[in-house]
Write a structure and sequence with these properties.
It contains 15 helices and 16 strands. The chain is an alpha+beta fold. It is elongated.
Length: 415
C-alpha cells in the first residue's frame, strides 16, 4: 500500500462540507467588498519567491519545495499566495486598469515544515490583495473584511494584534536600533537570528526560540522610530478601527515572516489551537511590485489559514452549518420498480432536488437502512402495486408519517 505523504491530509467526504462552508463564506464576504477572484499557478519560477518573499526568510531558506523541471528550469510550489498575485498584476498590465485592483483567492500552498496541529506541508489559504491604494482606509477596510468574515463564521475568540514596521525612509533607523540592542547578545542567540542580524534585524524580534524571545522582550520598539508619514498612517488606521468597533492590541514584536512587509502588519491570534495560534496574518507591502519589476504600487493584503480556521472552530464548538443531506431516497422493490425509481430520480435532479437510488441490488429493508445512513429526509417506495397505480409511498423520516404521491407530482411535492 502507498501511504499519504507526511504533512498532507485527506479531506474525506464526511468532512468536506466544513471546507465548503468556509469557502462559501469567503466568497460571500469577497462579493460584499467588491472583490474578484484571481487564480495563479500552483508552481512559479523560483526567482519570484527569492525576490518577493525574501532571502532572509525561513520560507526561502528552509521551507520551499524547489526542483528542476525537465527543461532544467528551477520551479517552486508556491509557499504563499501574495507573490504570485503580484506577478499576475505586473505581467497582465493591471496597473493600467481600474485601481485599486481588489482580488481574492482560495489556494493550496506548500512548505517543508515539521508537521503538527495547525501546520501541514500542504495547506490552504483564503487571501485578499488590494493594489494601488496607499491610504490607511485600505488597511482598515482589509482588517474590517477579516473581522466580518470571522464574526459571520461565529468566531469571537480571536484577538487582533497590530503593529507598524515603518517604510524605506524610516527603516534604516528602526533597523539600527535593534542591531545596537542585540549586538552584545549575539553569542546567546540562535543561528537564524545571527544570520538575520545584518540583513534584517527586525525579524529577530519575531523569533520563536524561547531564549531569543526572552532577549527580544527588552528590545527597542519599532514604533518609536517611525517617520511622520508612517506614524500618521498608523494613527489614522487605529482611529478608524476604533470608530468601527474593532478591538485591537498593539504588539511591537509583530513583524511577520516575509520580507516584503512595510508599515502596517497585523495578526488575528487564538489561544485555542496550540502553538500555531496565528489564524490570519497580513499587512502592507508598498515595495513588492517595484521589487518584482513593476511600477511603484502601494499594496496591502492578508491570508487566512483554512486548516487552522477549521481546527479553531472544532476546538471552540463553533458550528459549520448544516451538513448537506439527501432530500429523497427512491426505493424500488423489483426490477420494473427500480427502473421507474431511476427515471424519477433523474427528473428530480434535473429540477434541483437531491435524490438517491439503489445501485447495489439491495433488499427493500437494506435500502431503508442505507437511506437512514445518507440522512435522507424522505424515502419513496415503489413496488408493483405502486407502479400499476402510478404512485409512490413517501415516508417522512423525521415524523414517520407516510402519504401517497402521484409520479407526475413528485417534483412539486419534494420542492
Amino acid at each position: 500500500m502507498v501511504n499519504i505523504p507526511k504533512g498532507t491530509k485527506d479531506v474525506l467526504p464526511a468532512d468536506s462540507y466544513r471546507w465548503q462552508y468556509i469557502e462559501g463564506a469567503a466568497r460571500k464576504i469577497a462579493a460584499r467588498y467588491a472583490l474578484k477572484e484571481v487564480r495563479t499557478p500552483t508552481f512559479e519560477h523560483t526567482e519570484l519567491f527569492n525576490r518577493g518573499v525574501g532571502d532572509t526568510t525561513d520560507i526561502v531558506n528552509k521551507e520551499m519545495y524547489t526542483f528542476l523541471d525537465k527543461g532544467g528550469r528551477s520551479v517552486t510550489l508556491k509557499p504563499e499566495g501574495t507573490a504570485g498575485v503580484a506577478r499576475t498584476f505586473i505581467e497582465n498590465g493591471m496597473a493600467g486598469g481600474v485601481l485599486p485592483a481588489k482580488m481574492y483567492y482560495l489556494t493550496p500552498a506548500f512548505r517543508y515544515e515539521r508537521p503538527q496541529a495547525g501546520r501541514l506541508r500542504e495547506f490552504h489559504q483564503f487571501g485578499v490583495e488590494f493594489f494601488g491604494a496607499s491610504a490607511p482606509e485600505a488597511d482598515a477596510e482589509l482588517i474590517l473584511l477579516v473581522d466580518s468574515f470571522l464574526r459571520e463564521l461565529g468566531i469571537s475568540s480571536l484577538s487582533l494584534r497590530l503593529n507598524s514596521i515603518g517604510c524605506k525612509h524610516c527603516r534604516p533607523k528602526s533597523n539600527e536600533a535593534p542591531r545596537d540592542y542585540f549586538r552584545p547578545h549575539l553569542s546567546e542567540l540562535c543561528e537564524t537570528c545571527r544570520s538575520r542580524f545584518e540583513k534584517n534585524p527586525l525579524r529577530m524580534l519575531d523569533c520563536k526560540e524561547e531564549g531569543c524571545r526572552q532577549i527580544a522582550a527588552g528590545a527597542p520598539r519599532i514604533l518609536d522610530y517611525l517617520c511622520d508619514d508612517c506614524a500618521s498612517h498608523f494613527e489614522s488606521l487605529k482611529a478608524m478601527l476604533t470608530e468601527n468597533g474593532v478591538r485591537y492590541e498593539i504588539d511591537p514584536n509583530i513583524v511577520r515572516g516575509l520580507d516584503y512587509y512595510s508599515k502596517t502588519v497585523f495578526e488575528f491570534v487564538s489561544t485555542a489551537i496550540g502553538a500555531q495560534g496565528t489564524v490570519c496574518g497580513g499587512g502592507r507591502y508598498d515595495t513588492l511590485i517595484e521589487n518584482l519589476g513593476g511600477s511603484p504600487t502601494p499594496a496591502v493584503g492578508f491570508a487566512v489559514g483554512i486548516e487552522r480556521l477549521i481546527l479553531l472552530m472544532q476546538n471552540t464548538g463553533v458550528p459549520f452549518g448544516e451538513e448537506p443531506t439527501v432530500t429523497v431516497y427512491l426505493a424500488g422493490m423489483d426490477e420494473p420498480s427500480r427502473k421507474k425509481a431511476f427515471a424519477i430520480a433523474q427528473e428530480l435532479r434535473r429540477n434541483g432536488i437531491s435524490a438517491e437510488i439503489d445501485l447495489m441490488g439491495r433488499s427493500i429493508k437494506a435500502q431503508f437502512k442505507y437511506a437512514g445512513k445518507t440522512g435522507a429526509k424522505y424515502v419513496a417506495v415503489i413496488g408493483s402495486n405502486e407502479l400499476e397505480n402510478g404512485v409512490m409511498s413517501v415516508k417522512n423520516m423525521s415524523t414517520s408519517t407516510s402519504e401517497t404521491v402521484a409520479f407526475p407530482d413528485a417534483v412539486k411535492y419534494f420542492k
